[in-house]
Design brief:
Length: 115
């Protein structure tokens, strides 16, 4: 099922971000923002699996999608400000992009099923 894959992908992504954040010795407030947005993706996906109906399910996935976009922003900011090198970020960008695309497809499917 797509949601289980999404849960697994988001968990793996969050773990990689947590490990990355542990290696960054400065800019604690920015590191905190990256860690919070990246881990929130999976938390909202997990919550969606226990939603109170389709509208709540869609809302949780939309929050996860917003967190995905925010995480991509923080990754790009870290690269552009030389906190993180682009080579390290590429895998994280790709994983976040995969999660984002699955979320968009899941949201669209859920919205179609409501009609």
């Amino acid at each position: 099922m797509k949601e289980n894959k999404l849960v697994d992908l988001s968990m793996d992504f969050a773990i990689k971000i947590i490990k990355l954040c542990e290696t960054i010795k400065r800019h604690h407030s920015l590191v905190n923002q990256l860690e919070r947005s990246a881990t929130s993706i999976g938390a909202n996906i997990h919550e969606a699996n226990y939603a109170h109906g389709k509208p709540d399910f869609i809302a949780k996935l939309q929050i996860a999608l917003k967190e995905c976009y925010e995480t991509e922003y923080w990754l790009e900011l870290f690269v552009k400000s030389d906190i993180l090198n682009r080579e390290t970020a590429v895998d994280l960008y790709n994983q976040c992009g995969t999660i984002r695309r699955i979320l968009i497809a899941s949201i669209n499917t859920a919205k179609e099923n409501v009609k």
